[in-house]
Amino acid sequence: MADSLIELVSSASTAGSVDEAADRTSQRIIDAALQEAASVGMNRFTVEDVVRRAGVARMTVYRRYPRRDDIVAALALRETQRFLAAVANGIEHAEDPREGVAEAFIAAVTFARAHPMMRRAAHTDEALPPAENAKILALGSMFLANYLHGDEPGEPSQHQRWAADVFARLFLTYISMPPTDPDFGDEAELRQFAHLVLTPIAEHAVGRE
Fold this sequence. Notes:
Radius of gyration: 18 Å
Shape: elongated
Distance between the termini: 22 Å
Helix content: over 70%
């Protein structure tokens, strides 16, 4: 299941992402953009900042990403895929299928706590451009809807799509604005929250209530 979910997210990428994944220079540029976003903020880094940190020629960057917005889009997509891969891995390692939602939530929070850009976003009012936020939300919703649907034939039901959308929005909100209750530094408390609040929603969506 985890591999199929990751493949689903990868297949939903923007055009050219497969070439980028195999292009070490492109990844070096996006790594530099990530470091700049973590250092000065997503809304403040410039193409010149990325060129300098990546240690490549200016035209090397512009050939791959003609506009700053293209760098932002590529960065947002790559990190979203990494995030969802971490969530899929958490689901895969759940010993009991009913623990999948809790493990997904723990994996999401763990990834966010360790991610330099997400850590910064949790303490500032910075945000991605609305178009990129919409893409991230769509990818997350699609990922979660297919997880809820599982290996059943056909497409996720409306109920599953709605539940997935609620989960995606909740995850993004909790990660960007961590609450004090539940305590995001306490895994036991996060797991209890997931069991009491999130798992019942998922079980209702898949007809296991």
